[in-house]
Amino acid sequence: MQALFRRPTHHSFGPGFERNTLNRICFYRNLVALSTCSLVLGFAAENAAAQVTFLGSVRAPGDTIDRSGLTGTLETGTPIQAFGGLSAIDYTGIKNRYLVLSDRGAGDGAASYPCRFHEVDITVSPSDGRVAMELVQSTLMTDAQQKFWTGNLAPLKAWDGSGHAPCLDPEGIRVLDDSRIVVSDEYGPSLDVFDRSGKLLRSISIPERYLLSECRPNPWTTGTYTNRGIEGVAITPDQKWVVGVMQGPLVQDGRIENAKCLGVMTRWLIRSLSTEVTKDWIYPLENESTGVSEVLAIDNQRFLVIERDSKIGSEAKIKKIFLADASQATDVSEVASLRDGIPTGHQAISKTLLIDLLDPEYGMSGATAPEKPEGLTWGPRLADGRRLLLVCFDNDFEPTMDTIIAAFAIDGL
Questions:
Q1: What is the DSSP string of 352-403?
Q2: Shortest CA distance to 249 belongs to which of 232, 236, 233, 268?
Q3: Taking the model in full, what pTM does it have?
Q4: CB atoms near residue 20 (< 10 Å)
Q5: CA separation (Å) from 93 to 261, 297, 361?
Q6: Strand runs labelled E in 285-345
Q7: Residues 371-402: pLDDT tens digits?
Q8: Tens digit of pLDDT for each residue in 306-339?
């Protein structure tokens, strides 16, 4: 086991590594309904007493090496065995073991980075704010023929849209059982089932309205806009439904402007894991500058959602975790377009703020604000019964930028 990540208070990070000491802050915040007219009263009452306590964080330097056993450099000059780009995290259910998922690699798809996930042990000590992480294993992801998936964007540009996309941009990971995981891919987009050895077992079919727009006979009229695909994934606690959330609006739900698809109405794809049943829910973004980067189930109708802008440092404005309630949300799968807003007779997901990650008390605001909070998971219950929530941040494989995992205690959910 490779002990790479620790959170010391007065000594070095580990052999050859130095890190800044983060102050431990513990505080409690009552969650209040932000707009009673937009929330179901039962939801507001149920969650009004939710309390959040920041426990601490751990940082891995950007030049950390993983346990893939690979050597050499990529087209971008990045070490092929670089540890980083964490787009998702999920608890395995065993002791302090988690899976963390790297995305497509450095250079925004310019490198033939072999896609992979990692097993890590994360321990959290609420009494002194100490968070430690140890890298245990790195697993390369392959197709059914044992060919490595890479994040290289070039094959996607030549893809005709048939079958599975020829490359992978892994953005979400959830443990399905002790031998399988579900991974969301932003390129295709797709929802894929892998075994724990990293081999693709099957792809979960998704409706035609979600398929990549640029590969259609009439591109840019419907479908997923490039690099705005299925960003996060959740599995309901009863293991019956997989929830794939779009980073931004589908082409038919927004407008294309300055090489971007803009709008505030995004869709969640709700897909049965045992049948072909699907439905769509509407999730309203804060504004057109934001996108969804993760979803985590509380139960079958309530979720935590990361919504963020794409700014870093003092320019960052929105890095938030919302409580989302879909108990009153209606299925809009038959609605052709959401461009003009929520259709009459339909209702969107309700949301209320749980955590503002730019709160100065967390030590991740101002000039030090990271750009990409990307992953959410519950951990094992803390000794006092509170829920442990972990948030991972994507460093884009930048050697000068730390990978961060922050820990919160949640009471009342």
A1: EEEEETT-GGGT--GGG--SEEEEEEE-SPPTTSPEEEEEEEE-TT-TTS-E
A2: 268
A3: 0.89
A4: 9
A5: 38, 15, 30
A6: 291-297, 302-308, 319-325
A7: 999 999 999 999 999 999 999 999 999 999 99
A8: 999 999 999 999 999 999 999 999 999 999 999 9
